[in-house]
Automatic annotation (TrEMBL):
Residues given in the record as biotin binding sites: 118, 122-124, 189
Encoding gene (name): birA
Listed transmembrane segments: none
Domain BPL/LPL catalytic: 71-262
Name this polypeptide is given: Bifunctional ligase/repressor BirA
Domain of life: Bacteria
Positions of the DNA-binding region: 23-42
InterPro entries reported for this sequence: aa-tRNA-synth_II/BPL/LPL, Bifunct_BirA, Biotin_CoA_COase_ligase, BPL_C, BPL_LPL_catalytic, HTH_11, Transcriptional_repressor_C, WH-like_DNA-bd_sf
Enzyme class, first EC level, given as a word: ligase
Function in brief: Acts both as a biotin--[acetyl-CoA-carboxylase] ligase and a repressor.
GO cellular component terms listed in the entry, alphabetical order: cytoplasm
Length: 327
């Protein structure tokens, strides 16, 4: 975890923009000696930060590296609580597992677990999620809403809208959402979202939202079995995307939408979600555990449940399914 001194130091440089900060000011802000500040700056240099130091003016950051350590994510972050506490690992089996443990141990809301590589990343129905090193965003976010348990799945849809908006902000691409948890670009999957619950019999203790985003993979990085169904933001734009910058955008969008959701309910999110939805108005097949349901996707209910109108006019409500769109 990031030390409190390092957090204050990064926040000071973030707020300063292009202004220089003196060693004395940094020491007072971080609550440590000027010698300690110098040591922290040297550590940041080793991580890839470039500083400009001017006598009698102080320091400013002129370049931040393109990694996803706590320091890189914190530099430039503009949220109140989302992403303010970061647990970084180079390699893990699953960020979800670590997030569950941290939530049980009392982690604050908005805590993020992020890794450069996952060896056992997974999506819905325990499907494997390919998470190669230094290419994507593999993270889990801890939320602690005061909600009844049946509303927990709505957080998947809130998150999907936030990720779509963040991708738009950073890349200019126009992603679409495939119910309930996939984000596609031109029909190819770029993001998966996995929502898991920690709860007692009558209350939610924490919701763990796992997000996997294919950011800088090249086509040759994808396994053969998903080569024609998956893509990355870099493939679609032809550019290398700042993963830390995209994470900051996700945190900013998610914090805003999450607070809107807690204050005004699901309806404002529902309207946004349907605006990004890939399947609305199209003929689809919903493959559920009890059988297939075919018909036209009408939208989602106030609870985030998919509505399908069958050929005979009957409207079916689908709570969990794999969706196939009839082109």
């Amino acid at each position: 975890m990031q030390s409190e001194i390092r957090k204050r130091l990064i926040e000071a440089f973030t707020n300063a923009g292009q202004e220089y900060l003196s060693g004395q000011y940094l020491a007072e802000t971080a609550g440590c000696s000027r010698t300690a500040i110098w040591k922290h700056i040297e550590e940041l240099r080793k991580e890839g930060f470039l500083f400009e130091a001017v006598k009698k003016k102080g320091y400013k950051i002129v370049h931040a590296p393109e990694n996803v350590t706590a320091d890189e994510i914190s530099f430039g972050l503009k949220t109140e609580f989302m992403g303010r506490s970061i647990h970084y690992e180079e390699k893990v089996d699953s960020t979800q597992k670590i997030a569950h443990r941290l939530a049980t141990d009392g982690a604050v809301e908005g805590t993020v677990v992020v890794a450069e590589e996952q060896t056992l990343g997974r999506g819905r129905l325990d499907r494997r999620w390919h998470s190669p090193k230094y290419t994507g965003i593999w993270m889990s976010i801890i939320l602690k809403p005061n909600l009844p348990m049946h509303k927990a799945p709505q957080l998947t849809l809130v998150t999907a809208v936030a990720v779509v908006q963040a991708i738009e902000d950073v890349t200019g691409l126009l992603p679409q959402i495939k119910w309930p948890n996939d984000i596609l670009i031109d029909g190819k999957k770029v993001t998966g979202i996995l929502t898991e619950l920690q709860a007692d019999a009558d209350r939610i203790n924490a919701i763990i939202i796992g997000i996997g985003i294919n950011v800088n993979q090249k086509l040759e990085d994808f396994p053969e079995d998903i080569l024609h169904t998956a893509t990355s933001l870099s493939v679609e734009t032809g550019q290398v995307i700042s993963r830390a910058g995209l994470m900051q955008a996700v945190f900013a969008r998610l914090e805003k939408l999450y607070l809107t959701y807690l204050k005004d309910g699901f309806y404002p999110i529902k309207l946004l979600w349907e605006g990004y939805a890939l399947s609305i108005g199209k003929e689809i097949i919903a493959r559920t555990v009890t059988g297939d349901i075919a018909g036209k996707a009408l939208g989602i209910t106030e609870d985030g449940v998919l509505k399908i109108q069958q050929e005979d006019g009957e409207i079916r409500h689908v709570y969990s399914a794999d969706i196939i769109i009839n082109e």
